[in-house]
Amino acid sequence: MNMDLCELSPAYVRSIAPYQPGKPISELAREMGLEEKAIVKLASNENPLGIGPRTRAAIDASLAEIARYPDGNGYELKLALARRHGVDMASIVLGNGSNDVLELVSLAFLGPERAAVYSQHAFAVYPLATQARGARSIAVPARAYAHDLEAMAKAVDDATYVLWIANPNNPTGTLAPADELEALLRRVPERVIVVIDEAYNEYLRPDLKSPSVKWLKRHPNLVITRTFSKAYGLAGLRVGYALAHPSVADVMNRVRQPFNVNSVALAAATAALDDMEFVARSYAENLQGMKQLEEGARGLGLEYIVSYGNFITIRVGKAAEVYKRLLRRGVIVRPVANYGLPEHLRVTVGTAAENDKFLAALAASLRE
Ligand SMILES: *Cc1c(COP(=O)(O)O)cnc(C)c1O
Q1: Domain range holding 201?
Q2: Which of 44, 126, 128, 230 to mutate to test the pocket of ligand 1 (most atoms within 8 A of CB)?
Q3: Last residue of a domain, one of 275, 297, 317
Q4: 235 Cβ inside 6 Å of ligand 1
Q5: CA torsion through residues 264, 44, 324, 339, sign
């Protein structure tokens, strides 16, 4: 066969650059001949504390029913979320991670001849989900690494149907203030679905959290996304959700796979909502760890972007080289050149011991 089979897919699909995940521990262990236990992974903004006790018990119990299909409507989890947020169950869309929910937005509202607006340095899934539908990307220059919400609102054109906002943003950790978000919602046409991705919400100081759920009533074009992957510690199980106007949720549910969230994940997430102490501890330890990393970076004379998430993006200079040197020392962080930040590395806040190990390895890597 002489034909390049890739040519069979539409050009907009072929030009997608694959998502670059953090390097798995097992892969580095194989490559470097290291013990998995000796490796510190601070590359994917995972919760270093694992999961809470109720969550663990629910996972154990759910295994007995694993031969059955999950509840495709996720009744129990939606009920718990509806109570938590004070919304109707019809306003909730569950996803296989919030990544899935972001894909559902693009499936439901984007396509060729349409466009989506997002910020420079914004979460990589927005360009991916936009491009995969054949929609046009409108990337708006960031201001001091942060979303320039005014410029984003101005960038909306007649073909724009989605505006993506990560708050806080990954990989920069920047936060958009609530009043500026509200101003954007008032300004953009109602036709534009405004996605506020709040994957790191639980890590925010209470007074810094936007009252975004309240905005749903006034702004039916608002979609809020949240995840169980970060503060709840369930990254491996894949559960996230959207809160939206019931009509918006309805179309998103139509393009969803009928069983997109598995039964173990549903049980775990439902229980995780009650593991309040675990989330509180995750929040508190993250604040401590963030201080530790900030002080460590300052001690090494490095600049960093002030972060509101569970990670910090540090300017190390020749980041690709420093990344490799860290790998040789058994520390996995995340290069962010693909985000237009070739001099930075993104580092997840780990346990105190992991942060220490990273800082020591970083100091040694910079001296090398
Ligand atoms: C981690 C992250 C997500 C969540 O991913 P999941 O698919 O829920 O694991 C979503 N948005 C941003 C900005 C993130 O950093």
Answers
A1: 53-275
A2: 230
A3: 275
A4: yes
A5: positive
Confidence tier at 18 by pLDDT (50, 70, 90): confident
The closest residue, in CA terms, to atom 12 on ligand 1 is 199
Nearest CA to ligand 1 atom 2: 199
Average pLDDT over residues 168-196: 98
- Ligand 1 centroid to Cα of residue 102, in Å, is 9
Q: Is 18 found in the same domain as 115?
A: no
**What mean pLDDT is predicted for residues 34-60?**
96
Determine the pLDDT at residue 1.
65
Q: Is the peptide bond before 171 cis (omega within 30 degrees of 0)?
A: yes
| pLDDT tens digit sequence for 315-342 | 999 999 999 999 999 999 999 999 999 9
Q: Tell me the residue type at 232.
A: Y
CA-CA distance, 313 to 174, in Å (whole number)? 10
The enclosing domain of 147 has a CATH number of: 3.40.640.10
Say how many Å lie between the CA of residue 364 and the centre of ligand 1. 31
Is residue 18 located within the same domain as residue 35?
yes
Q: What pLDDT does 139 receive? A: 98
Residue 2 has pLDDT above 80, yes or no: no
How many Å apart are CA 298 and CA 332, to the nearest integer? 21
Q: Is 47 within 8 Å of 285 (Cβ atoms)?
A: no
